[in-house]
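Note to self: keep these together.
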Amino acid sequence: MRVATNTFYDNAAYAIQLAQSRLVRAQTEISSNSKLQTAADNPTDAVQVLRISQLLSENTQYRGASDVARNRLELEETALSRMGELAKRARELTVQLGNDSLSTGARRGIGAEADALLRSMAALANTQDADGARMFAGNFTSTTPVQSFVSQTDGKTYWTYNGDETARLIRVSNTRQLPTASPGSQVFFDVASPVLDAGGNPVLDASGNPVKDSVFAVLQDLVAAAQTPAPVSVGPQIQNVLGRLANFEDRLVTERASVGAFLNEIDAVQLAIEDSDFSLKGLKSALKDVDLAEAITRFTQQQTVLQATQQSFVRIQGLSLFNYLQTGG
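Structure:
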């Protein structure tokens, strides 16, 4: 059988290209630490690796969302804690004001401090988070939730809620959304107690909605009681203020308990995310990561094969009938 010279060249070139390809493949696996260079290498494993990567990306997003939720809830907890301190001080001032022997000057001092408490309480109710959103405005985050207005009917100042009635939610897992603050209407206002004017009629805000009793109205009544000159007794007013302050403090306790429960839930969510990440990364590694010892061995073998093939090609180049006759057979 006769074998043409071109056939020798073609076979040798193919052998060299194949050896080079295998060498490059082994080198690429080592440098990338991946045995799945393309989906064609193992379609089933490639699909699984893609899905795992998507799940890990979702975990990263949920971890970030839960961090945001934690920051908002911790900010709310701080605000609620400060409000509790203000309410406690207001209760102490109210008890002091119940002493009918207080002078007019002492009453005015209590009134001035109560007015400062009122302003501080309103500022806390209008707290903004790190993004500039109003914490207690529900989903109307750009609206100042608690505002005062002067009634055109009786000239008195009243307080109203201008936010949304629903809590702002943030998704922390594929099955759970957490509220990051309750609407201010639930925290600061007694929705079951409308404010009545001197004639016993509900006071309406600019939108025609009934004004509800609130901690701000309570503190404002405390200021008014303190402005009553001695020796006039304010006993009934004192009892009224103390009762309404107690209702507000009860709402604070309920809200702080909810915040604590949500913070505990975030801890559990983040722990579950960490466990999921650990499992998914282990599975992804098993499907994708290369056995370095095996790959290095294969790389070394392919180097040897390539060198041997190249040397064989060099020898084949010198084998022809013309060269044989020239050398004298």
